[in-house]
Description:
- By secondary structure, this protein is of the alpha+beta class.
- The chain has helices at residues 3-14, 20-27, 31-40, 73-89; strands at residues 18-19, 55-59, 67-71.
- It has four helices and three strands; from the N terminus they run H-E-H-H-E-E-H.
- The longest helix is centred in the C-terminal third of the chain and has 17 residues, at 73-89.
Amino acid sequence: MSALKASVFLKVALKEGQSIREIASAVDASPSTVSRLLLDMGQVDRNGDPGNGLIEVRRDPLNSTISRQFLTAKGRQLRQDIARIVDGEAATGMSSPLSVGP
């Protein structure tokens, strides 16, 4: 996984429901690049092949031209796995921002 793709995943993992433009701005990438990466992390990638199954897209209920990005069950599991690794390596005993509860 590229560093940019990992950054995009983490942005969604930290705050679900963001638009492509919001994520693109946060990772300093173009919306088209972020869109391609999100497609690859979805159920079906941009080439029609199986994707990673980590992200699902939902239309904004107030504005159907905006798509919002959310984690799938597989994506939530990856977020929890990353949080456990980060928490296990933290020498300070502080909770990771990815922690999602007990």
